[in-house]
């Protein structure tokens, strides 16, 4: 079994909060990680997709009161929206009795849904962590591009063949569209949402043009934005915001959008393997999204991420803004001989970043200019990970 980098952070967070919500898409490994932690202590696992476990929780206050000496792991917690006020009362009662933290580990497949339900009810009592698909730091034993091509969902990455991996991802997409997504909002025709998801895949790393999507789908802009919001909330799509600052430049205001897992991106575009990907027009944009997901999975929550683009052509693929005010400019190139372009130099003149990197698929780290380095993705995330420790 592949060890997850989030393991130690989750254990530590449980020591400091009565409740921890572990968020992530379905099949990303939340249950496996939770049970691994639960095996090392007195714990109880409840799956709210199980009729038997839902029956146990018909009167949650009575049932959970009998297990306050355990770490209670509640899977698919979004199925019980009325549970959070109950948890608040139980947590407060335990606090008054002098009991320790680490009482509840809540697993959910959507971010905003849980935040809405628990944000006020459990304020000061709950911490949120996101489990992403596997990252390059977690899978050093795999060929360098296999994680990129197949994506980081465990069953996809560990499949016996490329065909089996693609088949798993296609079934995953179908299940989300037909069974899972209807749980989280108004009924949306699965075929319409599939078409929209595929459009997003073709637009990988592009600026969000809601009006164009609306025309292509035959719906209004408000509906398109609700689709985007839903896929973002389900942690399947990333909306990367543009840099906003009064620097006397005309800045692009639309966000960029990415299908977060590269394997799902390739499945949506029916790209079966590396050879097909390398000859596909989306190859550069796919690599960009893959790099961004790995980088953002290695920085702390207080680091702000955005992109920079001006009407005059200045552009940085990823801008990391640190709490101390420092900026890191990260350019992403799918070339073993990357070159710094005029737009990057122009943007750096505007922004004056403290560090400049070009992430590329090679392994050698070297200086490209006086203050800019070419760096591999694995070295980049290791550096970020070391800072966060």
Keywords:
389 residues; alpha/beta; Rossmann fold; Arc Repressor Mutant, subunit A; six-stranded mixed β-sheet; five-stranded parallel β-sheet; 13 strands; 42% helix; globular; ATPase; DUF4143; AAA_14
Structure write-up:
By secondary structure, the protein is of the alpha/beta class. The chain has two domains: 6-130, P-loop containing nucleotide triphosphate hydrolases (Rossmann fold, 3-Layer(aba) Sandwich); 146-388, Arc Repressor Mutant, subunit A (Orthogonal Bundle). 42% of the residues lie in helices and 17% in strands. It contains 17 helices and 13 strands. It has helices at 6-16, 30-38, 51-56, 60-65, 83-96, 111-118, 146-150, 154-157, 162-180, 190-202, 210-217, 221-233, 262-268, 274-278, 283-296, 342-351, 377-388; strands at residues 19-23, 43-47, 71-75, 104-108, 126-130, 237-240, 256-259, 304-309, 315-321, 327-332, 355-360, 366-369, 372-376. The strands form three sheets. It has a six-stranded mixed beta sheet with strand order 8-9-10-11-13-12. Helix 11 packs across helix 12 (221-233). The longest helix is centred in the middle third of the chain and has 19 residues, at 162-180. The protein starts with 5 loop residues before the first helix and ends with a helix.
């Amino acid at each position: 079994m592949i060890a997850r980098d989030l393991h130690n952070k989750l254990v530590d967070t449980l020591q400091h909060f009565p409740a921890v919500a572990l968020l992530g898409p379905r099949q990303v490994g939340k249950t496996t990680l939770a049970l691994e932690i639960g095996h090392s202590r007195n714990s109880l696992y409840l799956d709210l997709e199980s009729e038997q476990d839902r029956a146990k929780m018909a009167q949650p206050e009575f049932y959970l009161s009998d297990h306050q000496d355990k770490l209670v792991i509640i899977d698919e917690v979004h199925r019980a929206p009325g549970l959070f006020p109950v948890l608040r009362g139980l947590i407060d009662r335990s606090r008054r009795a002098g009991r320790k933290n680490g009482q509840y580990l809540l697993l959910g497949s959507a971010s905003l849904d849980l935040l809405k339900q628990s944000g006020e009810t459990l304020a000061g009592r709950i911490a949120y962590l996101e489990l992403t698909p596997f990252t390059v730091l977690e899978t050093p034993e795999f060929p360098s591009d296999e994680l990129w091509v197949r994506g980081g969902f465990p069953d996809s990455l560990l499949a016996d063949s490329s065909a089996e991996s693609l088949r798993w991802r296609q079934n995953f997409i179908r299940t989300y569209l037909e069974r899972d997504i209807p749980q989280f909002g108004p009924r949306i025709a699965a075929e319409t949402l599939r078409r929209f998801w595929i459009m997003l895949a073709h637009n990988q790393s592009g600026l969000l043009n809601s009006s164009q999507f609306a025309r292509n789908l035959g719906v209004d802009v408000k509906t398109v934005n609700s689709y985007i919001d839903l896929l973002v909330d389900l942690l399947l799509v990333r909306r990367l915001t543009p840099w906003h600052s009064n620097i006397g430049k005309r800045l692009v205001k639309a966000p960029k959008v990415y299908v977060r897992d590269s394997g799902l991106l390739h499945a949506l575009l029916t790209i079966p393997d590396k050879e097909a990907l390398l000859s596909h027009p989306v190859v550069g944009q796919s690599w960009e999204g893959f790099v961004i997901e790995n980088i953002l999975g290695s920085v702390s929550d207080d680091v702000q991420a955005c992109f920079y683009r001006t009407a005059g052509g200045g552009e940085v693929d990823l801008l990391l803004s640190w709490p101390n005010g420092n900026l890191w400019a990260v350019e992403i190139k799918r070339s073993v001989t990357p070159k710094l372009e005029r737009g990057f130099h122009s943007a750096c003149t505007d922004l004056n970043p403290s560090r400049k990197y070009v992430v590329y698929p090679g392994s050698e780290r070297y200086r490209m200019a006086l203050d800019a380095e070419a760096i591999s993705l694995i070295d980049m995330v290791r550096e970020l990970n070391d800072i966060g420790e």
